[in-house]
Design goal:
This protein is α+β, with helices and mostly antiparallel strands. It has 3 domains: 60 residues, no CATH class; 127 residues, Probable inorganic polyphosphate/atp-NAD kinase, domain 1 (Rossmann fold, 3-Layer(aba) Sandwich); 152 residues, Tumour Suppressor Smad4 (Sandwich). The chain is built from 13 helices and 18 strands. α8 links the parallel β5 and β6. α6 runs parallel beside α8 and α11 packs across α12. 39% of the residues are buried.
Length: 384
Amino acid sequence: MNYSLPFSFGRPSLAVGTCETAANTSGSHGKPWATLSSRDSDAVRRNKPCFACNLNKLFPESGLLCYIRLMKPKSKRAVKRSHFCLLTNKSAASYDPSLIEKCTQAIKRRGHNYTVVEPNSGIELARLAEIAAGIRKSHKFYTPAVSRRGKVTALIACGGDGTVNLVARAAEKAKLPVGILPMGADNNIARSLFGESFREKAVARILSTKTRQVDVGEIGNQLFLAAVAFGLPVIMHSELKEAKRPRFGVGWSRLAGAAMEKYPKSDMVIKIDSFRFEVAPSMLIIASLSHVIGLPLNNVANENDGMAEVIFDLDQSAQDLGSYFKDANKGKYIYGGKVRLFRGKSVILQPVKGKKIYLDGEIIDLPVNVIELTIGQKKVEFLG
């Protein structure tokens, strides 16, 4: 590497060598360093002090600098640019374009790149998430403009729990981190991970360097992050799509009582690891995070311990379950005789054919009679 001097003595000529003084003081011996005058070129070849160093010895007050020190290049730290892909759900209950704009502007100010994707359906969102993550190939997505931004380094779910679930599936396969811009009705996943500041600090968390590992549950070919539920949670979630969400425990108690009248109980066998129960529960929840249908029902949740909490009642009345939801709204319920809580890595349920389940904000019909749920074998990394 050659360097040009801001001044020279005599006719300039190219010389590559080491100034003896600089080599002894700065440890730069043997490195190519400067364009010198012909007078200094000879000194360099003989490994002698350069003109400036000699002059400094005679006149210390001159303040001249050694050529090597003067011309030493400054190291430039390379800035690693990230590429965030924002996958939006315009049909989300609290869809907010201004929050997306705030996020993209913050990404731009940090010197990173972003791509905003606006699918028309959940199926298209899942497909585009896999394409963005590099699992599928598509020239339509990676246009020249998108390709110039580099490989996608993080997926951002802009929606509710269902959107986060679909994005997390692609991220788990590609081993990419997931960020959340919460725009759903419940936002159980964001609430569980980040507390009540889940919305206000969402952009800051996406741009932070912190990440956290979260257990992923599996049921058949489906993944879940927050919970899978039967019975009352399914009916209550459906009712809340058309009704105003209760603010206080009394409202949740009434909602649970009304749901009890619509749910026909049936016998069920529950096997949690090596423990077996024969019950007829009004509600059954398998949760890996704290919040389900917008309530902190799982108050012992640990997001990264490889275990799920199984919550079910033992043939309780509407009044008893109403009291449960009322206390759970305050986060004060203690599990025991009326509503039980067990922990395990594997859960087998039967018979379940024809039943509806709640899975991360979506209602799904079960076509099989026996299902097995496992937790902790897969994990997803979340930003923040």
